[in-house]
Specification:
About 60% of the residues lie in helices and about 15% in strands. It is α+β, with helices and mostly antiparallel strands. Strand 1 and strand 2 form a beta hairpin. Helix 1 packs antiparallel against helix 2.
């Protein structure tokens, strides 16, 4: 079996129309990338992999990271938690007790309505609790429940696995350089 047959077999799994697309790329002699994400086959010619496709590349990395996190959460039987909740857990695992929700909003760097939605979801699933602020009856403090604390080791293991996958065998210097470049991109987008 040659490479064309192998690739078209992969491409036709669940999606027979992809076989035609793969043959089109191979027939033209173009190098292409094949990405399987959540059962979808994504084709890209190598010429698409330029500076102009950086946002697409960042999106694919994020989607792959989220898929890894979801897979790990499911394999550990953790329900009601999605990748977007990670920032809330990361902050609350560092706290000694309940904290004002506004501290969490500031730490996350997300809209208050987004954080409020995450808090409601995690509260509904029993990972966090809300209590009225002793200083201001209009605001709330939030903290982790026993169920919330019980997933701390899973959270740390999944985070470590994700970091290992992201950096692979990059040198320390390359890691530092990449982080600086991404920070610059984030700053540019503000």
């Amino acid at each position: 079996m040659n490479i064309c047959n192998i690739l078209t077999s992969i491409c036709s799994y669940k999606y027979p129309n992809n076989q035609r697309l793969a043959k089109k790329f191979i027939g033209r002699g173009e190098d292409f990338l094949l990405t399987l994400v959540r059962g979808r086959t994504i084709f890209r010619t190598m010429k698409d992999e330029s500076q102009k496709s950086i946002i697409d590349r960042i999106s694919r990395i994020r989607e792959s990271a989220n898929f890894l996190i979801e897979r790990e959460l499911n394999s550990r039987g953790i329900e009601g938690v999605v990748p977007a909740h990670g920032v809330v857990f990361a902050y609350l695992f560092q706290q000694q007790g309940p904290v004002p929700i506004i501290f969490l909003v500031q730490k996350c760097g997300r809209a208050k309505s987004t954080v409020t939605g995450i808090v409601k979801t995690l509260e509904r699933h029993g990972y966090i609790y809300k209590q009225a602020s002793p200083d201001d009856g209009r605001s709330f403090h939030i903290g982790l429940t026993e169920k919330g604390w019980s997933i701390k080791s899973d959270f740390e293991e999944i985070s470590e696995l994700l970091i290992q996958k992201v950096f692979g065998d990059m040198s320390g210097k390359d890691k530092e350089h990449l982080v600086k470049l991404l920070a610059q991109i984030e700053k540019n987008m503000r």
